[in-house]
Structures are given as C-alpha cells and as structure tokens.
Amino acid sequence: LLLLILSLQWTTVISHSPSPALLAAIVDTDQIPADMPQQVHIAVTKKNTEMSATWVTFEDVPQQLEFRKVFTTKTKIVPAATTKFVNMDGWVRYVHRAVMTNLSPGESYAYQVGRPGYLSKEFVFKQLPLQPPYNILVFGDLGVSNGESIPSLLQEAANKSFDLLVNVGDAAYNLFSNNGQTGDEYFATLEPLFATVPYMVVAGNHEAEKDTNGNFTTYRNSFTMPDEGYGDNQFYSFDVGPIHFVALSSEYYAYFEHYGMEPVFNQYDWLVKDLEAANANRAARPWIISFLHRPFYCSNIDAVDCHTFDTHLVRDGGLSMPGLESLFIEQGVDIAFSGHEHSYERFYPRTQTPDYVPEPYHNPAGPIYIVSGAA
C-alpha cells in the first residue's frame, strides 16, 4: 500500500501568547459581510464520484454551488440546502450544504459558493483517485488561538501537500465558545485548507457542550459527514481506494450519563455490520482504518490518561455497554488513530493478551494504535 500518513505534531510553546505568524493568519470573521459565504469546507460522501461542501452565512439568503472541471468553462449549478442553526447562546447562523456529483476520480475541480454577484473566491480540489499513493494528514486537538501549527498547515495547503484530512477530535477549543465565534474563526482561518482538501472529523470531549445543556450541538450542525441514518456526524464509514475508513464516537461512552446508553448501542450495532461487510470486501479494500478521539492505550500519566474509567468503557466496555477493542481484534482492524492525549505515540500491533511476537507486523494479530494529539 503506497500510503503516507502524516501525524501532525508541534513542540509545546512555553509562552501562552500566540506567535506573530499565528496572529497574522487568524481571520476576523466580524469583517466578513453577513450575507457573504464563509467557513467553506468539503468532505467525501459514500460515493467516490461526489464531494460535499458546507458553508455559513449570517443572513438568510439563497445559496448555490457552481463547479466545473479545471481547464473547462462548462459550469454546473447545485442549489444549496439551508438549515437555520441557533446555538446554545441564541446566535443564529445559516448552514448551507450542496453535493457535487458525477465527478471523475483523480480529476481537479474548481467551485464557488454563494449567489450570483455574491460568490466566494474560487477553490480547487482534486477528487480522490481510485488508487494510491495518497498523502493523508491525521491530527487532533488543534486550537485556533494557540494553534501554532496553523501557519504551517496553511503553507501546506498552498503547496497542495495533502489528499485527505482526518481530525480525531477537539477542534478550535471550542467550536461553541464565545457565542460560537471561536468556531467561526477556526473554520475561516483554515478555509484555504478545509475548502480544498476533504476534511473528515469525529467528536472529542471539547465538542460535547454538556456544560451548556447542549448535545454536541455546534459539532452536529457544522459538518456534513457521510450519513448512516442518524444524521449527527458521530459515526460513519467511507472508502478511499484500498482503505475502508471507520469513524467512531468515544464520547458516547464518556458522556453516557448525560445522553444515555442508546447511542452507544446504536453505534456498536452499526459497527458490527459495517466491519463484517468490510471484511467480506477485503479483496477490493484490504485495509481497515478506524479513528476516534480517546485512545485505548497511551503511556501518558495525567488526569485524562488511559487508566481512566472513560477509557475502560471505550476499550473494554462495562455497565452493560460493549467495548470496542475485542471487536477491533475480531474483525481485523489494521490501524486505529486517536488524539485526546497531547502527544504522539505509536504502538506495535496489540491484542488483549500481549505475547512476544518476533515479527509483529507480519500478519499482525491486533491493530496498530497511533495517538496523534496536540496539533
């Protein structure tokens, strides 16, 4: 498999003040007219001939998406579906979604969103090819006011370095903070990357909004992940060439006292069926890669390390809820990415009864676990 997976890291800065480069990069969304589109980001769908786009306005104005193949002039227009989103602080945003269809894998497309006379800038993306190589960036725990990786990310966007972005949770710190303006800044600042490379996400603990009586409210309304019938962007799967990706919510387990156990069982029942289908399709897609926020294993020793009860629930189960590790092993998940811990760590293939294996990567008996937090 010709696959380069980059896990983003940065060295902790002693000062808590943003660097000049970061301050220069952050976009002040107050300067964007309320009727103009902003915060554009794209995501893959269940079909390799589609790409979805999501964006925001602060006025209820009709929106559409115009796209064309690069180096051609024939444009297709897709009306946007609009949702009025009122956050937990009462602020109103209008979230617009449109799907580009009949795309050719490996080809580049240009698109704009908005309405005639009030369109965004033109963005260009490459529809994921059917075969490797791919450059996939996996990262988590990326703030905006302290996101010292952001200038580098924007430079990599300009260099067209990535084919796919996988965010393992905790975005912006927090999407809903300051009446949601922190999330606005996050999306607007990283728009050059998120609007040109498909951006796939899972929820972390900083998306829960439990302290404001929310239920992942801003997270659920901000993204457009492949729909598994629940419409909440929490768990889903998609395919990229020889890889079957599985996105999961560890936060269902962590916050079951707030949101109940039903989401845990819904996700688990879906996951069993999804992994069984993926295994039946191994000839076409031999790799199964999962990503979720909380790691099963880590060597960190801190208040949220891998010895907590929350981690135990996610990994091993408890209180009648099924854990995920035994299913990962049974169904042959190859790699499991996570964040939460603000560090980078990679484990040898691991089972629940770890024995010495002289060639651990030859027909491994368990998944390789990779922690990629603190971007």
From TrEMBL:
EC code(s) of this entry: 3.1.3.2
UniProt KW keywords: Glycoprotein, Hydrolase, Signal
Catalyzed chemical reaction(s): a phosphate monoester + H2O = an alcohol + phosphate
Transmembrane regions listed in the UniProt entry: none
A GO molecular function held by the record: metal ion binding
CDD domains named among the record's database cross-references: MPP_PAPs
UniProt-listed SUPFAM superfamilies: Metallo-dependent phosphatases, Purple acid phosphatase, N-terminal domain
Domain Calcineurin-like phosphoesterase as annotated: residue spans: 135-344
Segments forming domain Purple acid phosphatase N-terminal: 37-126
Signal peptide (from-to): 1-15
Domain of life: Eukaryota
Protein name (database record): Purple acid phosphatase
UniProt source species: Pristionchus entomophagus
